[in-house]
């Protein structure tokens, strides 16, 4: 029977995180092992690993998935014990120390890999269980797990991680939960960020696993700055095919209506989405935006306190300045202006996206430019306003 006064066993995850950090330090700096002082026996990272091995021995034995990790730790202890004792300056001593340090570094890399694989399995298993629960489970735990998953996949592609995600069918569960009204808005927003991260992780594998139409509708229905940021990220990743999906599902009018939202952040992110649609959208999508009165809304926003004209900053004078430092200073000034005036020159910025974008043919770009100019004349309050906006469109004012 356990003594209730005995200290509680350390948490497995915290021990593994400490092991992972020590093994990463050792693998990143293998020379430290060979260069350790003669009386120290080994480097600080090795000492930390060996101390943690003793502390975690009973913990590792409880989980069969950690048997390989336990074996690697035992190998590490053996390699450290077998390190050359001689610290001579001869070639033989030097090569022996280098060989020993290389072997220890390889084992440290294996330890780090095993620990990360265990953490990945635990995260995915807990996420799957939480997403299958009614109401999407505990909010705080799910948000933490979703944030961990997002950060993990954004570190870059790994075949083992992809295999784990595919076996778990996590992507489909995420999409189902995103459309589940019983899930809190906060959870669904984090689910959206996780979906966008997975598509960036490997677009070829994860796009097409679920119908994107439902994902688009769910994100737009949430009507938050976070959900629209996810949509913007998806447009950047999937490009024209996603814009086609947005247009065919009749969602473009809803995105344009966000330009009139009471929340400024929603309006700003909606503007970003519109600019991305302008860059990747094909003829049908751009026509839908213009027919929905986008140009008139953009003129009104440019006229507002948060609007303005980038042409007033003298951007076109930058072409006359040959020194790169001065040009960069001008661009920095433009960025600062846009931070406080997010709708400055928004008509011209949209026109530039169409002109430099991927979705339209050359003759379509020219036709839409003329259409935008005609709509600007109709929407402007006076000739002076129309002349300023038209000049920006013709000259291509863009940040």
Automatic annotation (TrEMBL):
Compositional bias annotation for Basic and acidic residues: 20-30
Region (Disordered): 20-42
InterPro entries: ARM-like (IPR011989), ARM-type_fold (IPR016024)
Protein name: ARM repeat superfamily protein
Natural source organism: Eucalyptus globulus
